[in-house]
DNA sequence: AGACTCACG
DNA sequence: ACGTACGTGAGTCTC
């Protein structure tokens, strides 16, 4: 039976089994109900086996099914405010879009707001003074495309949105995460079949024409109606409403909060690293016997394989020729002293160009901090991504990397708190697969890789060697990624027969994991999609490909997505829970502005807190992360406190 | 614009 | 018979 746990909260129509037949029986139903109730998943609770319909008491707003209607754009004056309020009082859905003086929210002014209410459009210039109450109506739904921008503006003005949110960009993403076309134009075309002109993906256009914004917003309001039906048909409205929409204000605040940087550390680092790079570069030219650009893969390839005639056997080939990627250079490490120099050069140049020299230039003049964007409609699995700058790939693995991470600091009088999930994806595998052997390992609190090695090799924990643990770790990762024996062999450099043997033994011992993977694939091929424990879907058309490579890739995606995606769901719910408690503290000592969530790196949350609050906040965050969802295994989060990000572990 | 490489989970 | 694991964003070179 595939997708067992997924069906706990997501009854999939068309499957050849009923909820009651599922492994749900032996799952702790009560805890699921509690979890759902905590998140107000009323629409999901009723769908549990034996669910109680009386819990379901959401109200369905009336449909506004409109043909194209001419609209009037009304500008701000006293009479029109009255007319606006009157229009608003007759409906529980309205749309809004901001018009800013620039694209960077922190450095621009709010020029105006465009509203669409029913058939009417309104444009208010300089609306700062009066609009607050509009967004405080708890019985209304605010519709918009990329609402985080508007929420940020409002938050900045200390106007918090208390309305329900319906973001058509994120609805589009939830309906099909496999495409990246979630801009307003694409959504309107997809939902309404209507072509609109002009670039509409910009959230805030300098000097945007309010009339044009209103036209688009009207279509967005229509698109939300069709999306709403689709989400309901997908039985995915809980995920949308209770997770994604609730996350918007959380991300908005995180982006506004930003993170402090010790630019002095980076400036010093830049000088030292720059000198080192020059030194290594000179040595490389000397070894090569001629001058060339080490940063050019083409030139480097010619030097290595034509001029120096290094053995190219077994070196991966790309479209343009032999690869010079690090894994390939590693094979040549003993062939020539230039290889090691190139690898050193690469490491330093990468970190210098991507982080050391860039981060100080990104410090916002007004806040003195770095502000990223957390993208909520990008990844195919449900994870967030971070860009401009990407703060989810700050170095940590090398010494220089740790020094860079140490440039991320808490402001004077504050400390950082980092909380990270321990082995969350493997715990999710154990839980989804209901693999008792793996569940027991986690229940006993053992080192999962060591314990896996012990199980595979049939030896006690203390007899597990380094090599055994390393191999077991590789196989554990392989499970998450849908490995084959070729992939595992390549990764671990073990002979293929041995990799095959390892996998065979692994699946003999963790037979429910094997069963789970097979069932997931079976389901995916039949239905064309996979889903997380909470019903987040990913369609995978590659599964039907005639091309072996494409199809195999599809199968690996199908195995990985429910795991990575469920972890993403968990983290999002934890963030909402943490945010809620920070904003509505039960404890007296927690003050609104003294605790800030600032970063999320997939399985890690970073907060900045006023000194003295570390203990309280640590506990709060750890509790939220560990208890937001009850799995079949314990969920563990580790918390640490310090002045610098690089110090936390 | 696309290829390549590499930073992170 | 096939091929070098999943998910991202960004800098650089080349055309």
What would you say this structure looks like, in words?
The protein is an alpha+beta fold and 649 residues long. It folds into 5 domains: 6-55, no CATH class; 73-257, Nucleotidyltransferase, domain 5 (2-Layer Sandwich), CATH 3.30.420; 263-362, Taq DNA Polymerase, Chain T, domain 4 (Up-down Bundle), CATH 1.20.1060.10; 375-423 and 569-647, Alpha-Beta Plaits (2-Layer Sandwich), CATH 3.30.70; 425-567, DNA polymerase, domain 1, CATH 1.10.150. It is 47% helix and 12% strand. The chain has 23 helices and 17 strands. The strands form 5 sheets. Strands 1-4-3-2-5-6 form a 6-stranded mixed beta sheet. α10 runs antiparallel to α13 (337-356) and α18 (466-481) packs across α19 (485-492). Residues 1-71 have low confidence and may be disordered. The protein binds a DNA duplex (9 and 15 nucleotides) through α11, α13, β10, α18 and α19.
């Amino acid at each position: 039976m595939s997708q067992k746990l997924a069906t706990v909260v997501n009854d999939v129509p068309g499957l050849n089994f009923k909820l009651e037949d599922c492994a749900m029986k032996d799952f702790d139903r009560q805890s699921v109900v509690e979890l759902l109730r905590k998140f107000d998943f009323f629409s999901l609770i009723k769908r549990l086996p034996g669910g109680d319909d009386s819990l379901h008491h959401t109200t369905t707003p009336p449909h506004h099914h409109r043909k194209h209607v001419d609209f009037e754009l009304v500008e701000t004056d006293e009479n029109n405010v009255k007319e606006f309020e009157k229009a608003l009082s007759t409906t529980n859905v309205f749309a809004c879009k901001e018009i800013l003086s620039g694209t960077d929210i922190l450095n621009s002014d709010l020029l105006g707001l465009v509203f669409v209410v029913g058939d009417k459009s309104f444009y208010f210039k300089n609306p700062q003074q009066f609009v607050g109450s509009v967004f405080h109506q708890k019985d209304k739904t605010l519709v918009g495309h990329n609402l985080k921008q508007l929420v940020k503006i409002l938050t900045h003005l200390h106007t918090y949105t208390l309305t329900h949110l319906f973001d058509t960009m994120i609805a589009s993403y939830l309906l099909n995460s496999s495409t990246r076309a979630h801009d307003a134009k694409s959504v309107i075309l997809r939902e309404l079949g209507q072509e609109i002109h002009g670039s509409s993906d910009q959230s805030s256009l300098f000097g945007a024409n309010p009339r044009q914004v209103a036209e688009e917003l009207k279509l967005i309001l229509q698109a939300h109606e069709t999306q709403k039906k689709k989400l309901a048909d997908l039985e995915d409205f809980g995920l949308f409403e209770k997770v994604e929409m609730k996350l918007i204000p959380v991300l908005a605040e995180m982006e506004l909060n930003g993170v402090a940087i010790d630019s002095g550390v980076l400036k010093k680092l830049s000088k030292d690293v720059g000198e080192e790079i020059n030194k290594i570069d000179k040595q490389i030219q000397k070894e090569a016997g001629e001058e060339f650009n080490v940063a050019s893969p083409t030139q480097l390839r010619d030097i290595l394989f034509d001029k120096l005639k290094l053995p190219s056997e077994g070196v991966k080939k790309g479209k343009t020729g032999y690869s010079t990627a690090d894994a390939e250079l590693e094979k040549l490490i003993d062939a020539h002293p230039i290889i090691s120099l190139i690898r050193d050069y690469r490491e330093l140049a990468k970190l210098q160009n991507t982080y050391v020299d860039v981060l100080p230039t990104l410090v916002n003049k007004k806040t003195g901090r770095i502000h990223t964007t957390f993208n909520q409609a990008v990844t195919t699995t449900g994870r967030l991504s971070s860009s401009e700058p990407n703060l989810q790939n700050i170095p940590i693995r090398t010494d220089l990397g740790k020094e860079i991470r140490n440039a991320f600091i808490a402001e004077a009088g504050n400390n950082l708190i980092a909380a990270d999930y321990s082995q969350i994806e493997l715990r999710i595998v154990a839980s989804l697969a209901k693999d008792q052997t793996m569940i027991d390992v986690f229940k006993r609190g053992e080192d999962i890789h060591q314990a896996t090695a012990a199980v595979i090799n049939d030896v006690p924990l203390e007899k597990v060697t380094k090599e055994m643990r390393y191999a077991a770790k590789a196989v554990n990762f392989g499970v998450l990624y849908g490995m084959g024996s070729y992939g595992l062999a390549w990764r671990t450099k073990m002979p293929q027969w041995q990799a095959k043997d390892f996998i065979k033994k692994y699946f003999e011992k963790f037979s429910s994991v094997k069963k789970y993977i097979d069932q997931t694939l079976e389901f995916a091929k039949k239905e064309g999609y996979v889903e997380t424990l909470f019903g987040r879907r990913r369609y995978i058309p590659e599964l039907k490909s005639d091309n072996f490579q494409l199809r195999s890739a599809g199968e690996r995606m199908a195995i990985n997505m429910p795991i990575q995606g469920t972890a993403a769901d968990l983290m999002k719910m934890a963030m909402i829970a943490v945010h809620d408690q920070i904003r509505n503290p039960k404890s007296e000592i927690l003050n609104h502005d003294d605790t800030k969530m600032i970063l999320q790196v997939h399985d890690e949350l970073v907060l900045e807190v006023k000194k003295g609050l570390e203990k309280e906040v640590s506990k709060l965050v750890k509790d939220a992360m560990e208890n937001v969802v009850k799995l079949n295994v314990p969920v563990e989060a580790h918390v640490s406190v310090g002045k610098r990000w690089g110090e936390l572990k």
